[in-house]
Write a structure and sequence with these properties.
The complex is a heterodimer of chains A (431) and B (177). In chain A, 31% of the residues lie in helices and 23% in strands. Chain A is α+β, with helices and mostly antiparallel strands and 431 residues long. Chain A has two domains: 38-139, 3-layer Sandwich (Rieske Iron-sulfur Protein); 161-426, Alpha-Beta Complex (Naphthalene 1,2-dioxygenase Alpha Subunit, Chain A, domain 1), CATH 3.90.380.10. Chain B is built from three helices and six strands. Classes of the chains: A alpha+beta (431), B alpha+beta (177).
């Protein structure tokens, strides 16, 4: 397969087969998802020893558990005896995981502890060699990431300068952040990259796709009033991680606050305090603007709206979307509830914004079933080649304004880096 | 049928009929996207909640937590905001329209806390079909509080909706139960 023929960053086009072909998808699972650091949980979901959640890394089901030593372990959710799942709950609290099939039991670190009628096994198994495969685990300010590739760089290196942007939502106060309880999950018949690239840089769909949602939630305002075409608004990307947004500091908060003024009041009262941690630019001009972001490859979020989500691949044309709501731990109850409700009103399956996205991505995916349709290219040529990495204020590759395909192409360039590289050593360190 | 205190069998049948008519009309309004008429069947203090359904081990099953994320947790104000979407004329993904069908069954009526309140359970099957072959089936149950107003009419005061799915098997929830 000529992978380099699928993405043309210079000319700004993409081959439609990357949204459809099973072979390309299989390679994504091996070269992208099995190699990359992937978001698996927020620490607040598993505060106590024995707490666990289950999730997916690529299509590999994993358990994310707080072990008895207080550390977090991530391991495959599949018994080493016949392969059955060892845990069927979304979350819970346990001392061990016992397989339903033959009673093989594992600790919260994935180590094999024993099995039903274990006297039969005396002399036939070295339990220390038959634990569940563990992933590397690392956290960044509450977010837990895991990686199955021992050659991958550290999480800090993987995120690189993108941490400067992540801090805008993760480091607003001493108390840190947490997830609202629960998780909203739903299924799309779409390729996973449509979600990831949309949050990476698709400012232009907002005014059109989300016109109805914006008018509803703001009692008649147009998107352009909340998200003015500002020449200083920007796309920022580094190593495929993307951030796009404005500098007005208020667009998103205005969107959320029509019926919930306590959200804006909470943030405005803390701007000066936030500025001591993050500086004026991040605390007062960036945060609060209309922003969307994707951590490469499949973890996206909207600062202010507070949704965080993983686009979990289930095949070339299927996604499970898992979404959470991020709040500051110092938020009073009324603000927590207002943020949760505003988040569910905008970005959940019944959300006034999200509803329209799923419909678009499903049909953008499905049209590629046509063999002639699939031969065509898709235009990603808006403001290609306009990014520079010497901005005095903003780290990363910066392009202005935010209305472009620059971040999307950076995402696909990184996708190509991973897909075409036989090993981690072949993946460029800096993009 | 549950034996309600101080009510004759015949009175219960009349009440059951009245509530069935209420639900059948409500289903028709939802199928027709007549949301203004639908909202007029609710009390001003309506609490409309559709939690997510977690998969938990039996020992950890608890009451559903209203503080958790959800599909809907609405007041009359937020339902007005949501249903305004179609009036904007720019909800592109609703054009052409979705074909909706609400089937309501297993209606079970108990008297509520107050003489003018009824605690009513019902099950639903909601079918959605879009474009050529988009399909979504949703089965679940509803726990309602219906309240009789001064004018004698019944209104919906509280609804808790449980859909029998963990991961919602649909790209969206452009529908109410």
């Amino acid at each position: 397969m000529d992978l380099h023929g699928l993405i043309n960053v210079k000319e700004g086009w993409i081959d439609r087969r990357i949204f459809w072909d099973q072979d390309i998808y299989n390679l994504e699972l091996e070269r992208l998802f099995a190699r990359s650091w992937l978001f698996v949980a927020h620490e607040s979901q598993i505060p106590k020893r024995g707490d666990f959640v289950t999730t997916y890394m690529g299509q590999d089901n994993v358990v994310v558990a707080r072990h008895s030593d207080g550390g977090i372990r991530v391991f495959l959710n599949s018994c080493v005896h016949r392969g059955n799942r060892i845990c069927f709950a979304d979350r819970g609290q346990t001392r061990s995981f016992v397989c339903n099939y033959h009673g093989w039991a594992y600790g919260t670190d994935g180590k094999l502890l024993g099995m039903h009628e274990d006297t039969h096994y005396e002399g036939w198994i070295d339990k220390s060699k038959w634990g569940l495969r563990n992933a590397r685990v690392s956290t960044y300010k509450g977010l837990v990431f895991a990686c199955f590739d021992s050659d991958a760089p550290s999480l800090d290196d993987f995120l690189g300068d993108y941490r400067w942007y992540l801090d805008i939502i993760l480091d607003q106060c001493d108390e840190g952040t947490e997830f609202v309880g629960g998780c909203v999950k739903n299924m799309y018949d779409s390729n996973w990259k449509f979600g990831a690239e949309n949050f990476a840089g698709d400012s232009l769909h907002v005014g059109w796709t989300h016109n109805s949602g914006t008018q509803s939630i703001t009692y008649g305002k147009q998107v352009s009033e909340l998200m003015p075409v500002d020449p200083q608004s920007f796309h920022a990307n580094m190593n495929g991680h993307c951030w796009e947004g404005g500098l007005d500091g208020i667009g998103t908060l205005a969107l959320l606050s029509a019926d919930r003024p306590c959200i804006t009041e909470y943030y405005q009262a803390r701007r000066d305090k936030m500025a001591k941690r993050l500086g004026e630019l991040r605390a007062k001009r960036i945060f609060g603007s209309v922003i969307s972001a994707t951590v490469f490859p499949n973890f996206s979020f909207l600062p202010g709206i507070a949704t965080m989500r993983a686009w979990l691949p289930k095949g070339p044309t299927r996604i499970e979307l898992r979404a959470w709501t991020l709040i500051n731990s110092d938020m009073p109850d009324d603000v927590r509830e207002a943020v949760r409700d505003a988040c569910m009103l905008s970005f959940a399956p019944a959300g006034l914004f999200e509803m329209d996205d799923g419909e678009n991505w499903e049909n953008a995916t499905r049209s590629n079933e046509g063999v002639i349709t699939r031969q065509g290219r898709l235009h990603y040529g808006l403001r290609t080649g306009t990014s520079r990495n010497d901005d005095p204020d903003l780290p990363g590759n910066i392009s202005r304004p935010m209305y472009s395909d620059v971040n999307q192409l950076a995402f696909y360039q990184r996708w190509l880096d991973f897909m075409s590289a036989p090993t981690w050593a072949d993946i460029p360190k800096v993009r | 049928m549950t034996q309600a205190p101080n009510a004759t069998h015949l009175e219960q049948m009349v009440l059951w009929f009245e509530i069935n008519q209420f639900y059948t009309r409500e289903a028709r309004l939802l199928d027709a996207e007549d949301y203004d008429a639908w909202l007029s069947t609710m009390t001003e203090d309506i609490a409309y909640w559709m939690p997510t359904r977690e998969t938990l081990f039996r020992k950890e099953e608890k009451e559903l937590d209203p503080q958790h994320m959800n599909f809907y947790k609405e007041t009359l104000t937020s339902l007005r905001v949501r249903t305004y979407r179609l009036k904007t004329g720019t909800a592109w993904s609703e054009n052409p329209r979705t074909r909706y069908r609400h089937l309501i069954t297993n209606v079970e009526v108990e008297t509520g806390n107050a003489p003018s309140e009824y605690k009513v359970g019902s099950n639903f099957l909601i079918y959605r079909n879009r474009l050529e072959r988009d399909e979504c089936w949703m089965v679940g149950t509803r726990d309602d509080i219906l309240r009789r107003g001064d004018d004698g009419s019944i209104k919906l005061a509280k609804r808790t909706i449980l859909v029998d799915q963990n991961s919602l098997l649909s790209k969206n929830l452009n529908v109410y139960a």
